[in-house]
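User: I'm putting together notes for a lab meeting next week and I want to include a structural view of one of the chains we've been expressing. I don't have a solved structure, so I'd like a prediction I can at least talk through. The sequence is below, exactly as it appears in our construct file.
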Amino acid sequence: MNNQLEGNIMIYNEDETDEEEEAMVFQGEEEEEETALIGLCGEINEESLKEVTYALLTFNKGKVLVSEDDDFEDAPDIELFISSVGGTVTDMFAIYDLMQLIKKNRDIATFGYGKVASAAVPLLAGGTPGKRYIAKNTRVMLHHCSSNTGGPHPNIKANLAELKKVEEMMIQILADNSHLSMGEIYNIFSNNTDEYFSADEALEMGLVDGII
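Assistant: Thanks for the context. Below is the predicted structure for the 212-residue chain, given as structure tokens.
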């Protein structure tokens, strides 16, 4: 088996002889035992978005909209392993939205380990309910969205308004995938500092379903 790290994404490929095979998958001894693994390790940005998109689409028969002929009944879960400091919120939105589309066809189990911070938290929480896990020593961090806004005053004003909208969208996603209300999440953000949580606290908040 040949394991490679491309950018922030771990590629698992057992067939070392097929140079054209780039699917991010660990192949079991039997074809029907195929396991779909994706590792998001590092910053969430355009590069990791491209790689995670490729992996998710590969595991979804290369498309988002499937036909009646596409059979996912016996397909194993896609397993997304996350250890990330966060990154660009809009790139996170793209990954999150694609995950929700893929989940219509097959489950996505998420596993947080090491650090799951900022924009990485909605991805951890956005897995299939009942299949979202966190390692016991993982640290979770939430904080206000930020922007390096500059330029003319009208641009600064417009960018700040957009930042507020983006943060509201992130708060909504967290509320939709946890036991927390939008108000409770906003209160966490309004402390204007990085707020850290343990695996037990993440479980209590409903961001995950179990500690491993």
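A couple of points you could mention at the meeting. The domain at 2-211 is CATH 3.90.226.10 (2-enoyl-CoA Hydratase; Chain A, domain 1). The longest helix spans residues 153-176.

User: Perfect, that's what I needed.
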